Fold these 2 entries.
Entry 1:
Amino acid sequence: MLAIQVKNKVQTLLEVHNLKKHFPLQKGFIDNFLSKEKGFVRAVDDVSFFIKKGEVLGLVGESGCGKTTTGRLALRLLEPTSGDVLYKGSSIFSHSKKEMLKMRKKMQIIFQDPYASLSPRMAIGKAIAHPIVIHNKHNKAEVKEICLQIMEKVGLTPASFLYKKYPHQLSGGQRQRVVIARALVTNPEFVVADEPIAMADVAVRAMILELMVQLKEEFDLTYLFITHDLATCKYICDRVAIMYLGKIVEIGPLEEVFKNPIHPYTATLLEAVPVPDPKYRRTQPIPKGEIPSAINPPPGCRFHPRCPSAKAMCSTDEPDLREGSRVHWVACSL
Ligand SMILES: Nc1ncnc2c1ncn2[C@@H]1O[C@H](COP(=O)(O)OP(=O)(O)OP(=O)(O)O)[C@@H](O)[C@H]1O
Ligand SMILES: [Mg+2]
């Protein structure tokens, strides 16, 4: 699939090939004694996609479908069970620790939870500067200068006043900006933005999203933009990948996926986007029940127990991603 999708290798920044991450289940002593069989959480189960330079790919899906795990694998913050990630054509898993440290400057992450990713005992200036301090290329005064500059860029102003503040002394929106500044301070090329607006209120969300678009232009960034909210993708993404229970079920250009969703799961996600029209009536039923466990995913199509259009074959045949149109791919037997 990927070979056909990747038309122009020169422009492709990141390629993900058949990536899997199966976390072993932690069992108690008695369970281990009674059963030798090892269970796994199939968090990411054969995922392939690519991102071209300057592009924003949205990775969308319900909680627990494996978005964060995919993002972490793409930056080698986790080792995969199998599969590969190529950055500018070379496998990131083949790099030594030293080479990887160098690569980290170019590949950064905005973590999902700004509360959890900032130390309460570290002043924000120090937290933002940390990624450049570990590379040990600048003296103290230069580090401070770079840090103040990036703080100004992300709207943490006046930077010289906020530099010495601690996370608890900032608002939620400001904390989110700190996490963005820390990701950008090394001047990266590729950023995994893991639900960067999920913890903020509506007004702050719009501002952070606008900031991310502006920073993308200014720093010539490429994003993997993770979100559970398909509507957000409209404002920032060029293409979207819809993920369900460890697999990508549909991927294509934003406009095509919005206008012509092929997978029933994508259609129901789109129906969940609120429409400000009291006369509007839902055309797609909401999927039944909750996302199943990633330990024992349903056989066949993983969405079939919740799918409003499921046929008998869906419970046995596992669909691969297939070409709906040249750039729009879908995994559905129907
Ligand atoms: N370190 C880990 N050890 C064991 N299981 C894990 C680990 N990290 C994630 N998982 C499991 O993998 C699955 C996918 O988790 P992940 O955090 O990638 O989902 P997500 O799509 O980012 O969800 P959310 O939208 O809630 O952030 C979940 O079932 C989760 O419990
Ligand atoms: Mg997550």
Note: The first strand starts at residue 12 and ends at 24.
Entry 2:
Amino acid sequence: MNKTSNKLFSLTTLKVERNLPEIIVVTSGKGGVGKTFFSVNLAVTFSRFKKKILLIDADIHLGNVDLFLGLRTKYSIADVISGEKNLSDVIIKGPGGIDILPASSAVKDLLDEEDAALQRLHQAFSKFEHEYDKVVVDTGAGISKNVMSFVLGADKIFLVVTPDPASIADAYGMIKIILQNQEYAPILVMANMVKNEAEGESLYSKMNLMVQRFLNSQIYFGGYMLKDPLVADSIKMQKPLVISHPYSAPNNLIRMALRRIIGAQGKDSSQRKGFFNRVIENRNLSV
Ligand SMILES: Nc1ncnc2c1ncn2[C@@H]1O[C@H](COP(=O)(O)OP(=O)(O)O)[C@@H](O)[C@H]1O
Ligand SMILES: [Mg+2]
């Protein structure tokens, strides 16, 4: 390669790196706390700001973004890994113009796949990853290696917690693992299913105190969400709440959470790596 083509190559690489989307991973220690609800509604709300959004359903056991939205999926990431389909065949259009990469039970073994298969997925994704402004990832519950590989690939972590002591304990366990493995992605706590704002703030403050005292770090307030029957209504209607109930209190609270996510200081965007690249790297961590 001569000098000119070398320079051209590095400029192209730089352009692609700069354009990589911000990855927001929605997670929790415990299941059934509202991860899918927030993933869907945050993704659709982001798209309102003329952003191109990809929602990845990475809950490999109970993946149900498609059910939440009444969408039918034909293919999954597994078909890309096997080389039978392109990623563009797998991605489906969701409400508000978002793109959705559906989960599949066949993805269960995703992280046990051979390197070559995962590299194929990474390459397929990196071809058009830069087309998105943000990627929202809905994870499964728990702190398994699969879940943590996605969580540790985040630029920002949205941790959903409820006042249930089991939810708080599991969330704390997850924070501990996150902080042991990386320090740059801010963790925003969403206090879900609370009675009022005060309960939400106090839930966050208690957790932050524990993190400061025992883990010598800090977490951020991502907002609160009241326990509200409209949430279940929207799920029954198979529509995101921000579309089915646009003038409701929960919609306003989702918007406030979104502003907090945008306001959180993330890693310098020029240092980002491709998402599946990070997931593959995290597979080797001992979590
Ligand atoms: N703020 C809320 N108010 C009332 N019900 C809620 C709220 N958040 C979640 N839910 C209910 O909790 C259940 C689990 O939500 P989901 O988003 O599927 O959780 P996860 O993805 O964490 O398993 C759903 O049936 C949903 O209706
Ligand atoms: Mg879920």
Note: The two ends are 42 Å apart (CA to CA).
